[in-house]
Amino acid sequence: MTMPFMPLFMETLGNFSTWQLNLYSGLAFSMTYLSQAIVSPYWGSLADRKGRKLMCMRASGVMAFTIFLTGLAQGVWVIIFLRFLQGAFSGYINNATAFIAGETPRAKTGSAMANMMTASVSGNLLGPIFGGAIAGSFGYRVPFFITGFMMLVAFFLTWVNTKEHFKPVAKREMKPMKEIFSQISNTKLIISMFITTLIINASLMSISPIISLLVKRLMHGQGNISLVSGIVAAAPGFGTLLVANKLGHKMDEIGPEKVLITGLVVEVLLFIPMSLVTSPWLLAVLRFFIGIADAALLPAVQTILSVDVPPAAFGRIFSYNQSFQASGGVIGPLLGSFVSSLFGYQAVFLFTALMLGFNFILVIWSQHRQVLVKK
Q: Which residue ranges does UniProt annotate as crossing the membrane (predicted)?
């Protein structure tokens, strides 16, 4: 709800050059992912001892506080610090995912993960729209106050309306991760899912720094570039919303592995022609189909993790997965900016296709290992 206009808000807090504003905006964006990647394993361990509901309440409560304070910030470094703090205590969706995975029958896990994906994408679509509208009418600070209040509502809804069948475990009674991994038939599959999560998020974020610049070039600097950029940026979300629930049911029918492999192949085949587009509308159409493929990826990974991991380790495994996802959020934009500065905007799409192609090979290899282990 607040990210689309974060650079514009920061611009009002001082007299910055374009280079400085880009740097501060990038820091504010990446700090959240960086701190999230560092502390997620600790929160995961605590979740396995104290329960996922408590972790959801911890995340929503602290985020309500930090987001509200961001609306009061008088300097860019205050915002960057609060964003770092927000990332360190975030993880509501990750813990809610582990919560749902632990409470859902195994046969329904795919559908549950897809529904979670739908809810997350819906928020990512509606948040910027409402946040931008509110900021345009009432100023940049008001959306932070509203978002903070909404996180407080999430805190109380989680506290009052959810029930977790969880028995707290003393720290000394927790199984060490070495023992947990020894109980998993194919640990390489789990590790490959972590890497898959990193690559998927890196591929999604790799083009985020250049979308508006590429659209501007494709439109030759004419027309409503901001509006078209917004449509191009939002297109994958609409595709994901359209099919996420259906793919969840398909996962329950044929297995998440097949859905994941198909999604990776489709994404590779879509990113390659993106490097050749000459129209922003064709780019939007291709990104819409990317969104359909996206609906198959992370839910499939989460389903594989929830099926192949002992319930006692859900919190730690999902938190490790969140660390890899956050790392992708840091690495993706940096790689995208680096590649585009050296080889041009179109090269980013080819580089992303190459990453996803490597990911496809990794998943196939880990699946082959799983078959050998079962034999």
A: 21-43, 63-85, 116-138, 144-162, 189-215, 227-247, 259-283, 343-365
Mean pLDDT on 120-126: 76
240-257 pLDDT, tens per residue? 888 888 888 888 888 888
**DSSP 8-state assignment for residue 141:** S
Render pLDDT for 296-335 as a digit per residue (tens, 0 to 9): 898 889 888 887 777 767 777 877 888 898 899 888 888 8
Integer Cα distance of 143 and 137 in angstroms: 10
User: Quick check: helix, strand or coil at residue 182?
Assistant: helix
Q: How confident is residue 109, by pLDDT bands cut at 50, 70 and 90?
A: confident
The model's pTM is 0.73
Question: With contact defined as beta carbons under 8 Å apart, do 345 and 277 qualify?
Answer: no
Q: What are the chain's domains?
A: 3-162+174-374 (1.20.1250.20)
Q: Is the pLDDT of residue 375 over 60?
A: no
SS3 212: helix
| Largest CA-CA distance found in the chain, in angstroms, rounded | 66
20 sits in which H/E element: helix 18-50
Check residue 222 and report its DSSP letter: -
Give 226's pLDDT tier (boundaries 50, 70, 90): low
Taking CA atoms, 265 is separated from 31, 201, 293, 303, 365, in Å, by 32, 16, 9, 19, 15
Q: Which two tokens stand for residue 219?
A: 């439109």
Question: Dihedral sign, CA of 28, 34, 36, 38?
Answer: negative
6, 25 Cβ separation under 8 angstroms:
yes
Q: Is the Cβ–Cβ distance between 190 and 309 less than 8 Å?
A: yes
Residue whose C-alpha is closest to residue 304's, from 261, 359, 243: 261
**Contact assessment for residue 124 and residue 237, using Cβ atoms and an 8 Å cutoff:** yes
181 in Cβ contact with 305 (< 8 Å)? no
Q: What span, in angstroms and rounded, lies between the C-alpha atoms of 191 and 198? A: 11
**Dihedral-angle region of residue 220 (phi above 0 means left; psi in -120 to 50 means alpha; beta otherwise):** left
- Report pLDDT for 281: 93
96's enclosing H/E stretch is: helix 92-103
- pLDDT grade, residue 173 (50/70/90)? low
Return the residue matching tokens 């919303």.
241
